[in-house]
Amino acid sequence: MKLIYSLLFIFCGLAITSAQKTYTVQGTVQDFHDKTMLENAVVKIGEFSTRTDKTGKFSFKQIPAGQYKLVAKHPDCNDYAENVGVTQDVHLTITLEHHVNEIQSVTVHGNHKSNGSMVVKTLDRSEIEKNSTENLGNLLKNISGVSGLKTGNNIVKPVIHGLYGSRISIVNNGVRMAEQEWGVEHAPNIDVNNFQHIDVIKGA
User: Fold this and answer.
1) Number of domains composing the chain
2) What is the spatial distance between Cα 90 and Cα 27, in angstroms, rounded to a whole number?
3) Is 91 in the same domain as 130?
4) Which of 1, 74, 135, 147 is in the most buried spot, having the most CB atoms within 10 Å?
5) Is the same domain home to 91 and 132?
6) Where residue 87 sits, what CATH number does that domain have?
7) Closest Cα partner for 70 from 38, 44, 95, 52?
8) In a domain, 109, yes or no
9) Does 173 score more than 90 pLDDT?
């Protein structure tokens, strides 16, 4: 009987130790498109809640083992949710995608007055054919005042007098190209060989 009682006490002690075991759940929250770390995002796991720091990091300590629903939120982003099983220390990388709030259409009427500062530079067909293997960003660097922001072997965003991305409008046969709104890793998806000429308008 003493041996049985001793074994029971040992098993009970192991069960209590296991029940008290806790783990750390940590990770980062970043933008889906350009991988920018998001500060002040709200992260919840079960009944616990915290916010990310300036580097997009969050951490929960002493989380008991179990199954939890993890939710991450940030202004102007779609909410993120997943089920997380905690049986050991967990590290997560969470990506949130920004969404555009829809508003009612607004029509603006006015008269454009030229200030005389608008400059148009044109690359004709012969110039395009000489540089047929180049992408748009590299091709436009042949124009004075235009440079390129290079983030990869073939990823170049045009830069005009220090402006790039959404500050520059690229129009292809009357259709505005959306790639300029995305991160620096997205170059304009345009084949320069499809055009007879390319116009760069400064000061428009």
Assistant:
1) 2
2) 8
3) no
4) 74
5) no
6) 2.60.40.10
7) 44
8) no
9) no
pTM of the model: 0.43
Could you report the per-residue pLDDT of 73-128, keeping only the tens digit for each?
998 888 999 999 999 999 999 999 876 566 667 787 777 665 556 788 788 888 88
User: For residues 123 and 198, is the Cβ–Cβ distance under 8 A?
Assistant: yes
Q: CB–CB of 96/31 below 8 Å?
A: yes
Helices (H), the chain: 2-19, 125-130, 136-140
What ranges in 32-146 are assigned the alpha helix state H? Answer: 125-130, 136-140
Task: State the pLDDT at residue 53.
Answer: 96
Task: Name residue 110's amino acid.
Answer: G
Half-sphere exposure of 52 (CA within 13 A, CB side): 27
Query: What are the tens digits of pLDDT across the range 4-62?
Result: 444 444 445 444 445 569 999 999 999 988 889 999 999 999 999 999 999 999 999 99
> Which of 96, 127, 159 finishes a domain?
96
- Model confidence band, residue 184 (pLDDT cutoffs 50, 70, 90): low
Q: Are 28 and 56 in contact (CB under 8 A)?
A: yes
State the residue range of the domain holding 192.
119-202
Give the integer Cα–Cα distance in Å for 64 and 176.
52
- Give the list of residues 6+ apart from residue 51 with CB closer than 8 angstroms, or none: 40, 41, 42, 43, 58
Amino acid at 116: G
